[in-house]
């Protein structure tokens, strides 16, 4: 977002505000919420301290929120993903989300929004060093 101010003598100053970007680390359970965390997508996002309370495999991810683009970038270290996750969720060029996922309120608060939904779709996966990443669309 840019704001221009016209000053005397026709000088123009452009003030550029940095985009709002937030990053957290959380545990992600992959799968579809309505299928008991089977299938494709994001089933749950839980705090790091609660990972041991869930019977499903959890995977640590960095999650970056880009407000202006309405994107969330998920970053998983390849070495932390087991064979099941690699085969079922990262074995093709796209990460598939089959149903809307409602972000937990605590995560929304950290990202500075009241609500956030990850929308169904196929999202391109790319590798950057030891990280597998994908960016998903979100809505309020």
Provide an overview of this structure:
- This protein is mostly beta strands.
- The protein has one domain.
- The chain is built from two helices and eleven strands, in the order E-E-E-E-E-E-H-E-E-H-E-E-E.
- Strands 3, 4, 5, 6, 7, 8, 9, 10 and 11 form a nine-stranded antiparallel β-sheet that branches. The chain has a two-stranded antiparallel ribbon with strand order 1-2.
- The longest helix has 7 residues, at 83-89.
- The protein is globular, with a radius of gyration of 18 Å.
Pick out its properties.
two-stranded antiparallel sheet; nine-stranded antiparallel β-sheet; 140 residues; single chain; 2 helices; mainly beta; globular
SSE blueprint:
Blueprint: E1 2-6, E2 12-16, E3 21-32, E4 38-46, E5 59-66, E6 71-77, H1 83-89, E7 94-97, E8 101-102, H2 105-111, E9 117-118, E10 121-128, E11 131-139
Antiparallel strand pairs: 1-2, 3-4, 3-5, 5-6, 6-11, 7-10, 8-9, 9-11, 10-11
């Amino acid at each position: 977002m840019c704001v221009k101010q016209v000053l005397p003598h026709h000088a123009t100053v452009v003030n550029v505000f940095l985009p709002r970007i937030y990053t957290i680390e959380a545990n992600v359970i992959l799968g579809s919420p309505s299928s008991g965390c089977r299938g494709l997508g994001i089933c749950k996002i839980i705090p790091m301290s609660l990972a041991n309370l869930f019977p499903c495999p959890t995977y640590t991810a960095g999650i970056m929120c880009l407000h202006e683009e309405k994107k969330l970038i998920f970053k998983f270290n390849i070495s932390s993903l087991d064979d099941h996750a690699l085969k079922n969720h990262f074995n093709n060029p796209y990460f598939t989300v089959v149903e809307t996922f409602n972000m937990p309120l605590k995560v929304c608060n950290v990202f500075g929004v009241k609500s956030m939904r990850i929308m169904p779709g196929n999202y391109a996966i790319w590798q950057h060093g030891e990280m597998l990443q994908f960016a998903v669309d979100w809505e309020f």
